[in-house]
């Protein structure tokens, strides 16, 4: 029943993809990252109604003043910072545990048993690549575009993955397409949702 479970995540992504354009951008993102005060107030009124949202706006302005002198670090600077080593260690352990995931998908694709551990290692590397890539582009594009694009890519990749798994018994090369699509799905998930 793994394919039903995989399809369920695609259904949830599709529902979110349909409703995401109707929601405003995050007010803290608009104010703190983009510096758009008017857009922030408009988004706050759209999210919380016409009530008094000036208290929350003032709190965000204070946060902006506090973080004004703070330098935004890139990925390499974060990796060199000793205070984040515990969090990075936990994240690395989670990524390494991904080696155990997806074995059933790869068995369904009729991959040789000796290749599956290497493919699982590739899944973990794909997750790591997506985290590094997402952290470097999220400030440039914003969460909304990454979520929308990520869900759209995930839906497309899931459809292609299901097709490649169905055809893997007829065409030998479709097995490798399935593996590639799993890698792409993980990267799309890491960059978007």
Automatic annotation (TrEMBL):
InterPro entries: GLUT, MFS_dom, MFS_sugar_transport-like, MFS_trans_sf
GO annotation, biological process: D-glucose import; dehydroascorbic acid transport
PROSITE patterns the record matches: MFS
Listed GO CC annotations: plasma membrane
Subcellular location: Membrane
Membrane topology label: Multi-pass membrane protein
Protein name according to UniProt: Solute carrier family 2, facilitated glucose transporter member 9
Originating species: Leptosomus discolor (Madagascar cuckoo roller)
